[in-house]
Amino acid sequence: MTAAPSALVLFSGGQDSTVCLAWALQQYEHVETVGFQYGQRHEVELAQRGIIRDEIAKLGDWGARLGPDTMIALPELGRLSETALTRDREIAFEVNGLPNTFVPGRNLLFLTYAAALAYRRGIHTLVGGMCETDYSGYPDCRQATMTAMEEALSRGLDYPLAIETPLMFVDKAGTWAMAETLGGAALTDIVIAHSHTCYLGDRTHQHSWGYGCGTCPACQLRAKGFLQWRGIDAL
Ligand code: ZN
Fold this sequence. Notes:
- The protein is an alpha/beta fold.
- It has one domain: HUPs (Rossmann fold, 3-Layer(aba) Sandwich).
- Helix content is about 45%, strand content about 15%.
- It is built from eight helices and seven strands, in the order βαβααβααβαβαββα.
- The chain has a five-stranded parallel sheet, with helices on both faces. The chain has a two-stranded antiparallel sheet with strand order 6-7.
- α1 crosses α7 (about 170-195) and α7 (about 170-195) crosses α8 (about 215-230).
- It is globular, with a radius of gyration of 17 Å.
- It binds zinc ion (ZN).
């Protein structure tokens, strides 16, 4: 199988985008990463990005395929969004059913900036960890939104652009399984040790599934998926 030419991965340092990076490294000859600094309440994920890139580059021929990383600062997004991710508020579900961690339009902005970077870099594929099966149901993570964005960006840039979302219909247990298929225990160990999803930025408490507070919605989702993947009853 011949690998496709190149892709740009939206890479946060979280579990999902780490698996997406591995997926892209298997599919594409040249893979670059982009990350966004938007005033997150904690910057643990961002600190983990470089570590994960270094560790993943040691697997197979992925180091030869892994290209540069670009960080884009979007501080206005944090200022515009009065949400639990960027302010010191309790994580809770709002009356509209969305968790208050939802930053309105966040993924739309990320994709637009990533598309501008891809255009400059001559890359025609964006890869992101958007997922419909997430508990959160963020509307900017849905397949219908991705399809619309793909068309809007391709038309708006007059530049063919595909958005690949390998986790769109995969649950968290499936994400762990995908990591194992892509890179074996070496990759799942990197996900456990270095990827970060805890909303509270906790990297002091270690669990079988990685670091985190263990009680926030992101930790609970990650733990449940891990235990399901390992065949352990999560309940
Ligand atoms: Zn947590």
